[in-house]
Amino acid sequence: MSNILVLLESPSKIDKIKHFLEDNFPENNYEVMASGGHINKISDSGPWALGIDFETVTPKFTVDKLKKKNVAEIVKAGKNADEIILASDPDREGEAIAWHLSNLFIKDKKVIKRATFNEITEAAVVKAFREMRDIDQNLVNAQLSRQMLDKIIGYLVSNSLQKGTGLLSAGRVQTPALNILVQRDKIIKTFKEIIYKKIFVIDSKRNINLTLHRDDNNLIVNTEKTYFVSEEQANNILKNLSSKFKCESYKSKPFEVRSFKPFSTASLLQDGFSKLRMSASQITVASQKLYEAGLITYIRTDSNKFSTEFTAEAKDFINKNFKNGLFKDAVPVKTQANAQEAHEAIRPTNLDQRPDNIETIVDDKNAARLYNLIWWNTIKSLMKGPSGYYHNWSFWNNGYEFKQSWKETLDQGYNGLKANDTDENIELDENGDEIQEIDIDKPAFEMNSNFSIDISKDLIIMEEAKTSPPRMFNQASLIKELKELGIGRPSTYSPTLTKLKEREYAIPHRGKPFEVTEKGYEAERFLYDKYPEFFNLNYTANMEEKLDEIAEGKFDYKHWLSDLYKELSESVKQVIQNSKTSDIPCPRCGEGSLVFIKSKFNRGRGCSNFTVTKCGYREYEQPDGTWKEYVSVVKEDSVEKKEFKNSKKRNNVKAKK
């Protein structure tokens, strides 16, 4: 019987994995342990505290202080193992964790293998342990490159940001995300609305609702590219209209609404925010619990596809449990060039595990609601949607074109399902807005063209409207924007939003748009003034593409990181040098000027002459934006303690004599 040590990431998986292995591989003795994630981190040593040797472009790792005891126990257990199997998560992070763990046993020359599974089910785990492989060094290099890249940019630029503004941090993904928010906020704040007129023809008895589309010069009205109808123009149009409307065009085309698509990490975060009003961090925590409980597949993925095997299982399930032949293959989703699709889309591991009976497995309310969302989204993404015909009529009246459309639904598809308490039953369009199904009766028109209809001029209505600025991003739409721009990856979306909030750059109000703060504006101004190339959105997306090429073994990351460091460090040195002076004189000595200093609290400023005259003036920013001098508080008993210590020293001297 062989002694096998299995190393996972999360302790919550231990019992389940051990049970699967003991049942299916009784010939072996298994000890299952968890690393708790990364055991190492890049040290804060060397130039700029980067912990990177730029001669060889290799990071210097130190064991995380919180993991030292855990690492010691893993090493001890490895001494007695005939084989070590590394079963950390199936992504670049997990591959790097496996690599770090393998390095603990280099001297022991142990047999080490890598096992990966996309879901914590017996079938998936057993399959993974029968198809083990070696560590993929290309994936490890991609993760190490990301770590070094993030530290180079984060540490260097944050250092200059602190010296120049007193603000705390910048980041490779965080800063472009902030830029997206600031630019949108500027557009909204400088937007000037245009008040204009809409013209309708409404005959409710005949279900007629015509809208003016083109004027007598054949120009489409009320668009940015043409013009908006003024009150004077509207009155002139009303005068020119007669009561006779001639239909010159009729079109009919089939439609099917398929708004439910398999979940990637980004789309799960978007729907969780829009439908459940949960924050990105809440969704991340809840989905991790569901994954570790074996209820859903791996949660960090760019994929919007189900496996062929699962699709076949889902087809059987839907045909057995729902009427009317609702099954239909999922809508193909266009794959982005830089998408990582090593895994399936996020889905339930077992459709028989219905949302209304998972309380015994997960007692977390957010996790239960999220499972509801994932289960129903998966089911509906594999069902026919509402379908029928769009009918469109075009009428002309004295050179003016009016249009009306009618949506004729012939098959309700998944909308015809019986209401279920666990189904959120919310359908969103491409803009994240809820789709409202409004039943409108057929208008009193023929289903063809070349006919006329008389409508009283009294039924022609003029209505005031105004243009609106683009909407401010919320958590869902910002994640969508980042994904479409190719910035960040599934594992970075939630941490990026958290960092923007922690640094008080942008506040993500619950279920509402972001609020960009003055600190956010100041940080964005500084960073894009000093480092416009490094935080250019295309440049940031190009970094992600290079990391993907490293993962495929197609790109030399060492020269890339070395060149980037040299260029950025020179820029940072110059920015810091220019930040050492300011126009604000020191209130205490009057000789130095106030410059930003490192602070664990709010922003701090101190006298620039500290190293010369020892002027120790310091002040800190208050919550209301004002600055207040720091005065150290002397504790009441500190004088007595000092006198006691001096007395004790004098007595010791006397005793020696």
Automatic annotation (TrEMBL):
<protein>
    <recommendedName>
        <fullName>DNA topoisomerase 1</fullName>
        <ecNumber>5.6.2.1</ecNumber>
    </recommendedName>
</protein>
<dbReference type="Pfam" id="PF01751">
    <property type="entry name" value="Toprim"/>
</dbReference>
<dbReference type="InterPro" id="IPR013497">
    <property type="entry name" value="Topo_IA_cen"/>
</dbReference>
<dbReference type="InterPro" id="IPR023406">
    <property type="entry name" value="Topo_IA_AS"/>
</dbReference>
<keyword id="KW-0413">Isomerase</keyword>
<dbReference type="InterPro" id="IPR003602">
    <property type="entry name" value="Topo_IA_DNA-bd_dom"/>
</dbReference>
<feature type="site" description="Interaction with DNA">
    <location>
        <position position="38"/>
    </location>
</feature>
<dbReference type="InterPro" id="IPR023405">
    <property type="entry name" value="Topo_IA_core_domain"/>
</dbReference>
<dbReference type="InterPro" id="IPR028612">
    <property type="entry name" value="Topoisom_1_IA"/>
</dbReference>
<feature type="site" description="Interaction with DNA">
    <location>
        <position position="150"/>
    </location>
</feature>
<dbReference type="GO" id="GO:0003917">
    <property type="term" value="F:DNA topoisomerase type I (single strand cut, ATP-independent) activity"/>
</dbReference>
<dbReference type="Pfam" id="PF01131">
    <property type="entry name" value="Topoisom_bac"/>
</dbReference>
<dbReference type="GO" id="GO:0006265">
    <property type="term" value="P:DNA topological change"/>
</dbReference>
<feature type="domain" description="Toprim">
    <location>
        <begin position="3"/>
        <end position="120"/>
    </location>
</feature>
<feature type="site" description="Interaction with DNA">
    <location>
        <position position="146"/>
    </location>
</feature>
<dbReference type="InterPro" id="IPR000380">
    <property type="entry name" value="Topo_IA"/>
</dbReference>
<feature type="domain" description="Topo IA-type catalytic">
    <location>
        <begin position="136"/>
        <end position="572"/>
    </location>
</feature>
<comment type="similarity">
    <text>Belongs to the type IA topoisomerase family.</text>
</comment>
<comment type="subunit">
    <text>Monomer.</text>
</comment>
<dbReference type="GO" id="GO:0003677">
    <property type="term" value="F:DNA binding"/>
</dbReference>
<keyword id="KW-0460">Magnesium</keyword>
<dbReference type="InterPro" id="IPR013826">
    <property type="entry name" value="Topo_IA_cen_sub3"/>
</dbReference>
<keyword id="KW-0799">Topoisomerase</keyword>
<dbReference type="InterPro" id="IPR013825">
    <property type="entry name" value="Topo_IA_cen_sub2"/>
</dbReference>
<feature type="site" description="Interaction with DNA">
    <location>
        <position position="503"/>
    </location>
</feature>
<comment type="function">
    <text>Releases the supercoiling and torsional tension of DNA, which is introduced during the DNA replication and transcription, by transiently cleaving and rejoining one strand of the DNA duplex. Introduces a single-strand break via transesterification at a target site in duplex DNA. The scissile phosphodiester is attacked by the catalytic tyrosine of the enzyme, resulting in the formation of a DNA-(5'-phosphotyrosyl)-enzyme intermediate and the expulsion of a 3'-OH DNA strand. The free DNA strand then undergoes passage around the unbroken strand, thus removing DNA supercoils.</text>
</comment>
<feature type="region of interest" description="Interaction with DNA">
    <location>
        <begin position="169"/>
        <end position="174"/>
    </location>
</feature>
<feature type="site" description="Interaction with DNA">
    <location>
        <position position="155"/>
    </location>
</feature>
<feature type="active site" description="O-(5'-phospho-DNA)-tyrosine intermediate">
    <location>
        <position position="298"/>
    </location>
</feature>
<keyword id="KW-0479">Metal-binding</keyword>
<dbReference type="InterPro" id="IPR006171">
    <property type="entry name" value="TOPRIM_dom"/>
</dbReference>
<feature type="site" description="Interaction with DNA">
    <location>
        <position position="300"/>
    </location>
</feature>
<dbReference type="GO" id="GO:0046872">
    <property type="term" value="F:metal ion binding"/>
</dbReference>
<keyword id="KW-0238">DNA-binding</keyword>
<dbReference type="InterPro" id="IPR013824">
    <property type="entry name" value="Topo_IA_cen_sub1"/>
</dbReference>
<dbReference type="InterPro" id="IPR003601">
    <property type="entry name" value="Topo_IA_2"/>
</dbReference>
